[in-house]
Amino acid sequence: MRNLWWMGLGLAASLVIQAPALRAQVNFAPARNIPVGLYPGTALTGDLDGDGDLDVVAATQDSDDVSILINNGDATFAPARFVPVGDSPETIAVGDLDGDGDLDIAAANRLSDDLTILKNNGSAIFTASQVVSLREDPFFMVTGDFDDDGDLDLAIANRFDDSVTILPNNGSANFTVGSEFGVGDGPFGLTRGDFDGDGDLDLATSNRFSNDVSVLFNNGAASFTLNQTIATGEGARALTPADLDGDGDLDLAVANRFATNLSVLKNAGNGTFAVSQTVTVDVNPRAVVAGDLDGDGDLDVATANQESGTVSVLLNNGNAVLSPAVNFAVGSEPRSITAGDLDGDGDLELLTANSDSDNVSVLINTEVALPTIAGFSPTSGPVGTLVTITGTNFTGASAVTFGGAGARSFAVLSATQIQVRVPRGATTGKIVVTTPAGNATSAGNFTVTPRPGRQPVRPAGRR
C-alpha cells in the first residue's frame, strides 16, 4: 500500500509541472529618435534625477559636452541639456562616484587626452569637479570597485597604447592615474566582471587589430595579469559579459566589426573561454549588449550596426545558442547600444547613440509575454466540474479548451488565475489557454470522468 501511495503522489505531481514555455519573437516599435549634441558616440541610462525612472546621458564628441535627457517616465524625454567637458568625449561612465547616493558622470576626452568628472547634486544638475590627464586617445571606460575598498574606480582602454589604465578613487570622486596593464593590439572595447569566480572584478578587452579578446585576472587589489587571449572574428570591436548558458558564470559576447558577426565565448567556470558559436549580424557591428529582451528568463544579445543603421537582436535558447538575427532600424551610424526599462512597463527597451544623425534612438519593446500553465485543480472530474487554472500572463485570454473542447464561458480572475467549468464534449487531454500572445498548454492531462450514476426511483411497494 505504501508503494501505491508514492505512485499516486508521483502521478498527481506530473499533472502540475509547468510545461516548457513557447518562444515568442521579440518585437520593437519603430525607433523614437531624440536630438542630442553633435556626433554622439556613447549613450547610457541611469536614474540621474532620483525619480525612479531611467534617464539618458550621451557623450557628444563634436560639441565637446554630454547631453542629459530627463525621462518623463514613459520613454519620452525633456529637451536635452548640455554640460561641457573636454575635447571630443568618446566614452562616458555613470555611477555613484562620490558615495552620496546619486549618479555622477565620468567623460573620457580623446582629443584633450583627459578625464572630466561631473558631480551630480541629486537633481541631475552636474558640475565639473576634476580633470585628470590621461594617455593619448582614451577610448573606452568602465566603472568597478577594482581594489575592493568600497568605492567605484575607473578602468580606461588606451587603443593606441594597447593597454588598460586603472584610476583608483579616494572615495570622494577624486581619481589618480594608477597602474597600466598590457592587452592585445587596439583595445577598442572593455568590460569587467568576476570571470574566475574569486569575488573580485576582472577585465576583458576586445582588440580590433589583433582580432582577439584579452582576459585579465585581478588579484583583488587592482593588479591584473593577462590570463588568456582568445581569437575571435576580424575586427573585434566590442564585448559584453552575460551568463548566456545559465550555469552561474559570466560568458562573453563579442561584436566583430569587419567580419559582420558575433562570437559567443563560453566560460568554463574558471575564467577560461572558448568560442562556442558565431552568428551573422547586420553590417559593421560596433557595439553589443545583453539582456532578457523576450522575457523568457535567459539573456539575449543585441548589436548596434554602424554601417547599416540597424540593431540586430539575437534570442537565446537558454544554453548560449543564439537565433538568427532580427534587424530593427535606428538612426544613422549607431555607435553604442544599451538596454533598460525606459517606459516602466517591466520589459527592456534598447537605446543607441547615432553619430551621423546627432540623436539617440529608443526602441520600445512591444513583446507581449506568452501565457504559461503552472497547474490546475482538481485534476479530474465530470463535465461541469469547476476547475481553477494557475499560471502567468492570462490577461486577455480568449479561449480555454479541455481535450480540444472549448469552454463556452470562463472567468479570468487575474493574470495568474482562471476559473472554468469542464465543457460538454470534453475528453481526457491537455488544457489549453489562448491569449493575444499565444497559447499555453498544460504539462499533464485533465481526466474527464463519467457523471455519477443515478439510482432509479421505484414506486412504493414494488420490487
Automatic annotation (TrEMBL):
- The answer to whether keyword Iron applies is no
Which SMART domains does the record cross-reference, listed alphabetically? IPT
Where does the IPT/TIG domain lie?
Answer: 370-449
> Region Disordered: what ranges?
442-463
One Pfam family this sequence matches: TIG
**SUPFAM superfamilies found in the cross-reference section:** E set domains, Integrin alpha N-terminal domain
Stated name of the protein:
Gll0714 protein
